[in-house]
């Protein structure tokens, strides 16, 4: 993959631009009730597709909180659940934001994130508070949040949707995500991909010749 072959870059958010720590959410949930196995709750919520339904906007924040309380058999407040749920969202390293700004001079830049209504409010607040009123929408040509468009990665339809909406060619598009099953799905559509795990987005573009 050569730099001059790429016309468009699609970024994931968490784990790519925004630092995240999912175990931090689990630790806070555990602190609410030490008798509860967090792994059990996560597995049960997955079985009921609660995360998937929340990330496609099928259930509301209230319904999501109700599910959490049901599995804890508790009456945690909205504030407690939101605090724990948002604890995994950390910070935006300045150098990553500056990279994206510089890339806009060379490429079309999009954001594609599996997310939910509670997280959107939180990570937008983090950006604004830490970076002088920064609005994520201003960094990209367009922003796509799964809960707003009713689709989520790794389903092929969400990648095809972004391509079609913007008249993009898969072979000249680069997609960066921290989950291999997401990059694999995009790659099967002919999109160039990089999985961000042992590298970071700055190194990706330094090595893109």
Short recap of the structure:
The protein is built from 11 helices and 5 strands. With 209 residues, it is of the alpha/beta class.
Shape estimate:
globular
β-strand number: 5
Q: What is the makeup of the main sheet? A: 5 strands, parallel
Name the CATH class of the largest domain. Alpha Beta
Order of helices and strands: EHHHHHHEHEHHEHEH
* Protein structure class: alpha/beta
CATH topology of the largest domain: Rossmann fold
Give the CATH H-level superfamily of the largest domain: HAD superfamily/HAD-like
- The strands making up the biggest β-sheet line up spatially as 3-2-1-4-5
Share of helix among residues?
A: 40-55%
Number of helices: 11
- Low-confidence residue ranges: none
Give a description of the structure.
The chain is an alpha/beta fold and 209 residues long. The protein folds into two domains: 133 residues, Rossmann fold (3-Layer(aba) Sandwich); 65 residues, DNA polymerase, domain 1, CATH 1.10.150.240. The chain is built from eleven helices and five strands, in the order βααααααβαβααβαβα. Strand 2, helix 7 and strand 3 form a beta-alpha-beta unit. Helix 1 runs antiparallel to helix 5. The chain is globular and about 55 Å long.
